[in-house]
Amino acid sequence: MSSTTPLRSTGATDGIPGRRFQVFTARNLAQIPGLSRLSAEQRFAMEVVASVLPFRVNEYVVNELIDWDRVPDDPIFQLVFPQRDMLAPDSFGRMADALRNDADRATIQLLAREIRGTLNPHPAGQMDLNVPEHQGETVEGMQHKYRETVLFFPSQGQVCHSYCTFCFRWAQFVGDKELRFASNEADSLIDYLRSHPRVSDLLMTGGDPMVMKTRNLAQYLEPLLQPELAHVQTVRIGTKALTFWPYRFVTDKDADDLLRLLERLSESGRHVAIMAHYNHPQELSTPIAEEAIRRLRDTGAEIRSQGPLLNHINNDPRDWAALWRKQVRLGIIPYYMFVERDTGARRYFEVPLARAWEVYREAMKQVSGLGRTARGPSMSADPGKVEIQGVTEVQGEKVFVLRFIQGRNPDWVQRPFFARFDAEATWLNHLQPAFGEKEFFFEAEYRQMLAQAG
After folding, report:
1. Contacts for 43 with CB less than 8 Å, ≥ 6 apart
2. How far apart are alpha carbons 125 and 360 in whole angstroms?
3. Residues 54, 162: Cα–Cα separation, whole Å
4. Residue 320: closest CA among 341, 304, 336
5. Burial (0-12, 13-18, 19+ Cβ within 10 Å), 133
6. So where are the chain's domains?
7. What is the pLDDT of residue 194?
8. Alpha carbon distances (Å) from 254 to 18, 21, 120, 215, 243
9. What is the pLDDT of residue 6?
């Protein structure tokens, strides 16, 4: 897309009309027509879970992406609608009793907050280790876990067009300020970046920055064009909008303004990376989804795809292979397969690490080299991103082969290490060192980091 070439009309693109954004939340869950197919017990279970975990879905997802003939097993239905087993039986029972007994709002909110506290709302040291200081003060709405990359949470982007039921940032959306990262201070972001010349990457995240009006997003991104911020070479924007509301890039009133903003960043020499969250090939099944991808790529931005392996949604190598093949055809770069994080509804979605590696390996066997850019399965754990490279046998002992893709200490990166094979383990802290070692090579240093932070 050239800045001298007029963009297509935002009113309609190749016969695709604009669409009004209509959202459903826990308050009007019963108004979603398709739910009448479910039993009263199933609908009540959704109400119970939605009293604890965030629920939000829009009309496009409901009508265009969900196959209601397959509900409740449809993967997109599982992706956005609450299910009973997302809460532990005791937690579910307590909230169900409160609702049946018509408990007042304050009682329900207190119980919900208590249950949320058991769900590890901020995994991987987000509150304790990731929040930086600048000039002696904590920088609100920012995380700086890895040396080269700063994460920023703009306050206007702390919502999504729909919510994923597995989301590891679910605590952003439950209305509890103590659990929320957010900042409306563009100046604090720019000052921090200016004083940290080793930062090469800025990741705008949330929530979803693409829910923001373009004029608000521009407050954070346009200052990056200043010469003194030339060291920030990559601008990443994490988003699920390509799935949940592709109209954002095509027919929304400021869609063209958004694309021009991204184009200006690209033409300045910055690498603009749209970090798109995809979980199933069904998300790429509509013409509007493909048109949104085409328009984004015309700005000079790259689209990279990432998402976790999830029971009930994509625990099948055929789904991953189909997803990666279609993404490559559309010009998207497969980037990460994650392990479901140890937070929120993990009990419903997690799969053993051995199974995760099996799915990844079998999917990789089904795609060409261009689809094998996806790294994984990767755990975004407290010490860093740890990749499961395989399962093998060394000196008669069956082991996981692991390595850091990213580490709190850059020296940990790419160093292989080994854990005893455990068929049931689902996270790094479930693993034990192999070969009789007392601890993994990074653990002593990581304990020192924790002590210093405390």
Report:
1. 29, 30, 35
2. 27
3. 10
4. 336
5. exposed
6. 12-116
7. 93
8. 12, 14, 37, 9, 18
9. 37
Q: Are 366 and 380 in contact (CB under 8 A)?
A: no
**How distant, in Å, are the alpha carbons of 115, 317, 432 from that of 377?**
29, 12, 18
Token output for 47: 């109400």
CA 446, 452, 454: angle at the middle one, nearest 5? Answer: 105
- CA 209/CA 426 separation, integer angstroms: 30
Cα separation, 251 vs 256, whole angstroms: 8
Indicate the residue type of 425.
Answer: A
Mean pLDDT of residues grouped by 10 in the chain (454 residues)? Answer: 39 68 93 93 96 96 97 97 97 97 96 92 62 73 88 89 90 62 73 93 93 95 94 97 98 98 97 98 98 98 98 98 98 97 91 98 97 96 95 96 95 96 97 97 94 80
Q: How far is CA 376 from the centre of its chain?
A: 15
State the first-to-last Cα distance of the chain, in angstroms, to the nearest integer. 50
Q: Are 408 and 438 in contact (CB under 8 A)?
A: no
233, with CB counted inside 10 A (0-12, 13-18, 19+), is: middle
The answer to whether the predicted template modeling score (pTM) of the entire model surpasses 0.85 is yes
Tokens of 308: 């976790």
| d(C-alpha 306, C-alpha 320), whole Å | 11
- Work out the number of other CB atoms within 10 angstroms of the CB of residue 193: 21
- Separation of alpha carbons 228 and 181, rounded Å: 27
| C-alpha 320, offset from chain centre | 17
What pLDDT is recorded for position 214?
97
Residues 406, 402: Cα–Cα separation, whole Å: 12
pLDDT attached to residue 183: 55
